[in-house]
Amino acid sequence: MKILVLHAHPRLSASVVQRAMLRAIEGLDDVTRVDLYAEYPGMDIDVPREQRRLLDHDVIVLQHPLYWYSSPAIIKEWQDLVLENGWAYGPGGTKLAGRFLMSAISTGGPEQAYHHAGRNRFEITELLSPFNQTAWLCSMAWLAPFVIHAGRRMSNTELSSAAESYRDLIVGLRDGTIDPLTRLAPGFTLPPAFVEGISR
Amino acid sequence: MNPQDLLLGAFIYLAAAVIAAPVATRLGLGSVLGYLVAGMVIGPSLLGLVGQEGAHVMHFAEFGVVVMLFLVGLELQPSKLWELRRPIIGLGGLQVLVTALALGGGALAIGFGWKAALATGLILAMSSTAIVLQSLNERGILKTTAGQSCFSVLLFQDIAVIPILALLPLLAAAQAHDTHDTSLIGDLPGWAQTIAVLAAVGVVVLAGRFLTRPLFRLVAETGMREVFVGLALVMVVGIALLMQLVGLSAALGTFLAGVVLAESEYRHELEMDLEPFKGLLLAVFFIAVGAGIDFSLLFGQPLFILGLVAGFIAVKLVVLFVLARLFGMSTPDASRFSFALAQGSEFAFVLISFAAGLALLDPAQAGLLVAVVALSMAAAPLLMIFDARVLQPRFASAGETRENDHIDESGTRVIIAGHGRYGMTVGRILQASGIRAVVLDHDGEQIDALRKFGYKVYYGDASRPDLLEAAGAAEAQVLVIAIDDREKALEIVETARRHFPNLRILARAFDRVHAYRLFNAGVEDVHREVFASSVDMGEQLLVRLGFHPFEARRAASRFKSHDEKLIRRAAKHVDDTQRLIDLARQGSEEIERVLATDMGDTPQSPDHGWEAPDAKPRES
């Protein structure tokens, strides 16, 4: 399968974890990395071009730091503009049906903070429910998010092994050694039109 | 008339105009009524300062009407004229027909013969282009629904004068054959006359189309304004003469020439050069009308004449109102429309003397008609005031849903002064966004080149208030100053701020110093011409050096807004060099600090910020 990694970090030069993740998937065949802030520093997203990109891939990965329990602004802008009515959803909007959507995020806080009893009061999949529903509306399958917690406090070895597991996941999805249907997010059921989606 | 008398006469007329206009305007009555009253005061019936030459003066001042129609034509692109064809022919035609029949019937009733009555009806069906357009324009409602309808009707009437002039001799055919025909071609057979008329019109159209532009360009290049004005006058007078030669209305001929030149880039320049002549001549014309009112006739049978005037106005009001409603106007619009047009026309004086010459009207009838028309013209401004102050507020309070006035779409929203490399880009963005701008430039060659590419560019010097006015500054929202002459740009700012304080100004500055001066002249939106481009390049340079594009973009934006603030601060100290140097140093330090923070040199990355609260061991 072909993987599209849409990446967003507004201050990449100051980032540690995200850069490690990007490096880990550098140079892989059939894995396209797109730095949205680099391609559209003025946020003026080229909609047809990004739509063509989506059509060329099977798994769409949104890779970004978790800011304020969501994505950096340009991911939202991308959703708003690229996932058009009649194209991605709504009447005749079947272009993404049968594809997979996955979030690959890094958080500042540790895993324990993202629980009902923790400081952030919600679990990661709860916080990401807008993406869950986005996938469902577009008849896509929403995969369990890949998360690196508190990566800044990791040692170099720890961070490398975290980044490597990211790489393994991406490569496994690409090669079919990991069946994405076994990696659906907890509680996510396939939308009705998913099976009639793209033939792979 | 010896030179002494000429000067004295000119002095009296002009002085009367100069005194009457401001007084009348101050009283809210409009200049036309002021002129008419001034004429009555200085006329033979009261002070007697002017006497028998009044008729000659009026004849001369009719040229003001001719110039006015030329200017009206300039405002009207042929496409616009075509758009208005329905109101012109339908509303205008019905108005003339119905009014002529009704008033002709009235004339029959007071004992005119049927031919005289028909002639009277036709003559009185006209309304005064001069009064109506002047008044509507002064009150700024020329481009509203009612205003445009008035205009259509007046236009039809002006055209209708020609067939009426042709019809009157036919009516009089059985009677005396007067030597009315002063035209050169009067002795030719009918078909030759027709050819001569068509040829004359053809000359006007073709010359207007092909000859005037190179001619104006030639004259414009001399840079001598008086020559340009002279050429404009020569053209208008020439057309008037040519039209009279073939027996057509001079007003219609110049109107035609105006329409032909409406697309020309010299339109605004022509407009403002002829404007003062038109204004003065019309003033003299109105004064002459006022002076020509024969008070002895009025005092002889005051009730009869006043009754006639009242009946005349009433018939016009009713006909106009009913037609306006039939043509779908709302009640307030119909009221405004009918009150504006309920008077006799300056053409009536011409037609009356013509008909009298044909013995179609006897001298007593002619005198009576002149008095009725003149009095109705004097009453016209009062009627419009009555409508505006008494009736319109009632319509509004009666809760009738009044439609928004239809503001002409050709109304200018943006004026761009200077259409070089800078102004052109600004203009193209507007054009791409569907906003029409009036573009002024003063480089004849540049204009010719641009027009070949389909740009609408007008020749003119935007530092003159009259030209800005002609370009629509009174109604425009924004003035863009993009000319390549820094002193001139400052002049335009000054002119625009003095005469059109509501106009927002966006100005292009050449450099920092020029920007200071523009700020200090009161412009808020100053754009240094190469600033944005150099910032763009700086941004790209950062990217080429390996900066992340989004961070480079943010650095450039931060730099830009910081520098915009700095230059505004510095503008206040433009004469204090030391202070400027201090400010510049201070500014550089500030921006370095700002960018360093933004680039993440200080430990404030979001990751860290997000990490901090949870990083403490007690959490985990």
Structural class given helices, strands, pairing of chain B? mainly alpha
State the share of residues found in helices of chain A, binned by percent. 25-40%
- The separation of the N and C termini of chain A measures 8 Å
Strand segment count of chain B: 6
Q: According to CATH, what is the topology of the largest domain in chain B? A: Na+/H+ antiporter like fold
Largest sheet of chain A: 6 strands, parallel
- Unreliable residue stretches of chain B: 175-182, 399-409, 602-608, 611-620
**Chain pair sharing the greatest interface:** A-B, 28 and 22 residues
Describe the protein's topology.
The complex is a heterodimer of chains A (200) and B (620).
Chain A: E1 3-7, H1 17-24, E2 31-35, H2 36-39, H3 47-55, E3 59-65, H4 73-82, E4 100-107, H5 124-127, H6 129-137, E5 141-142, E6 146-149, H7 156-175
Parallel strand pairs in A: 1-2, 1-3, 3-4, 4-5, 4-6
Chain B: H1 3-26, H2 31-42, H3 54-75, H4 78-83, H5 85-109, H6 114-124, H7 129-138, H8 145-171, H9 190-222, H10 225-245, H11 250-261, H12 267-292, H13 295-300, H14 302-326, H15 331-341, H16 346-357, H17 363-397, E1 414-417, H18 421-432, E2 437-441, H19 444-452, E3 457-459, H20 465-470, E4 478-481, H21 486-499, E5 504-509, H22 512-520, E6 525-528, H23 531-544, H24 549-571, H25 577-598, H26 606-615
Helix pairs in contact in B: 1-2, 1-12, 2-12, 2-17, 3-11, 3-12, 5-6, 5-8, 5-14, 6-16, 7-8, 8-15, 8-16, 9-10, 9-11, 10-11, 14-15, 14-17, 15-17, 16-17, 22-24, 23-24, 24-25
